[in-house]
Design brief:
The chain has four helices and 23 strands. It is mainly beta and about 350 residues long. The longest helix has 11 residues. The termini are far apart. The relative contact order is 0.23. The structure holds 2-acetamido-2-deoxy-beta-D-glucopyranose (4 copies). The site of one 2-acetamido-2-deoxy-beta-D-glucopyranose has 6 residues, from loops. This is glucan endo-1,3-beta-D-glucosidase. Keywords: Cell wall biogenesis/degradation, Glycosidase, Hydrolase, Signal. InterPro entries: YJL171C/Tos1_C (IPR018805), YJL171C/Tos1_N (IPR018807). GO terms for molecular function: glucan endo-1,3-beta-D-glucosidase activity.
């Protein structure tokens, strides 16, 4: 069905938006959430250096060196390179990333990265925060950098590898980057250890996964996107995320189970230097049984971010049309404006803190 949909969209190349036929609709859960008016002019504290210190104690203060970075424009700061992060318990079956071929309004978005369980990845590297084990680095002040994730997705490895089972055990985290290193081409902001580029400007991530129930109530799965600078310094340390009053360089919680009291519900939240908002009382359904497919579109042209649960996705397609992307953007969604003058909401910060504590 999808294959023919894409064929039809090709006929209308550059024409009006299509109505996609694969958006999941549920009566009892959110399946489509759109953030509008995302971009803003503002500043965040960019990490410019991270001093390692000397074992056994960090005596350097400050060791996290930052400098104010001003950004502006449509989708800012989510037009910067982003990474996608996952926390188990979860099985990941497929991941694909699509981007406009030349500029944000290109009629074709081509598949730039992809991976399927048990196969080699194309322009996609699995990382975790185990630097010092196999790859990357660890220091007393800065802690663990990124490392290549091992094939069990629990530890570090010396070289990029992929998982044959797609199983991410509860409490473990991985994130994806392109295969281009910061050594080969300079990355924005400070980077150390095993550091690669993310996906900049407009991008669409599509992924199929499940989040099985866990007998350990403390294991709450989540999927989120971060400014790639965050993981290149320290996801859980010195970074530009700016939890708290200063705001930051961009985080989108896509699907996050936040409480053992509501283990079948997942929320979304968005954070930048201009504040925070989210799905509020509306929740996505945690896919505990059958796997689910989600897409997340970061669209510079329309200044919107769209999270959709899909009924299916044809991962063999090497391109999609801009009109299909516009079809998703113009389909019925729960719409949350990311206004210019939001202040951080305490209940959102509460959820945020829970997630970021191990
Ligand atoms: C964007 O790319 C398309 C080709 O995909 C081209 O026709 C168009 O002129 C480009 N627009 C800009 C502003 O560069
Ligand atoms: C990155 O992946 C692409 C596609 O698989 C490949 O052609 C390229 O050689 C890789 N580059 C590096 C630096 O590994
Ligand atoms: C390396 O991994 C082991 C086992 O997971 C862990 O105990 C150790 O703390 C790690 N070392 C560093 C430097 O992170
Ligand atoms: C933003 O909010 C503050 C405090 O509520 C208010 O004083 C200010 O006028 C608002 N600015 C705009 C542009 O609405």
């Amino acid at each position: 069905m999808l294959t023919s949909l894409v064929a039809v969209s090709t006929l209308f190349f550059g024409a009006q938006a299509l109505t996609p036929s694969n958006i999941m609709r549920r009566t009892d859960a959110l399946t489509s959430l759109k953030y509008t008016g995302v971009g803003a002019q503002g500043t965040y504290m960019q990490v410019t250096n991270l001093l390692p210190g000397e074992f056994p104690s960090c005596t350097i203060s400050p060791f996290c060196i930052t400098s104010e970075k001003e950004v502006s424009g449509s989708l800012a700061p989510f037009d910067d390179e982003m990474t996608l992060a996952f926390r188990g318990p979860m099985t990941i079956e497929n991941i694909a990333v699509y981007q406009p071929i030349s500029n944000t309004s290109s009629a074709t978005w081509s598949r730039v990265s992809n991976w399927a369980k048990g196969e080699e990845a194309t322009n996609l590297v699995f990382m975790n925060n185990e630097g010092g084990n196999g790859s990357g680095e660890w220091s007393i002040c800065a802690g663990n950098s990124q490392s290549y994730a091992d094939d069990a997705w629990t530890g570090g490895a010396a070289a990029p590898t992929t998982s044959s089972s797609g199983w991410l055990p509860g409490g473990n985290e991985i994130n994806i980057m392109t295969n281009q290193t910061c050594e080969a081409a300079e990355c924005s902001g400070f980077s150390r250890g095993t550091a690669n580029h993310g996906w900049a400007d407009s991008k669409m991530f599509v992924f199929t996964f499940d989040m099985p129930s866990s007998s350990d109530a403390s294991q709450l799965p989540a999927i989120w996107a971060l400014n790639a600078q965050v993981v290149r310094s320290a996801q859980y340390g010195c970074n530009c995320r700016g939890e708290g009053a200063n705001g930051g360089c961009g985080e989108l919680d896509i699907l996050e189970v936040i409480s053992a009291d509501t283990p079948d519900q997942a929320i979304s939240e968005i954070y930048s230097f201009k504040g925070a908002t989210g799905s509020g009382a509306n929740t996505f359904a945690r896919p505990t049984g059958a796997s689910a497919t989600y897409s997340v579109v970061f669209d510079v042209d329309s200044d919107q971010i769209l999270i959709n649960e899909l009924t299916e996705w044809d991962y063999t397609q090497t391109a999609v049309t801009r009109s299909l992307v516009e079809g998703y953007l113009s389909s019925a969604s729960t719409t949350v404006p990311f206004n210019d003058n939001l202040s951080r909401r305490s209940e959102i910060l509460g959820a945020h803190r829970r997630r970021h504590h191990h």
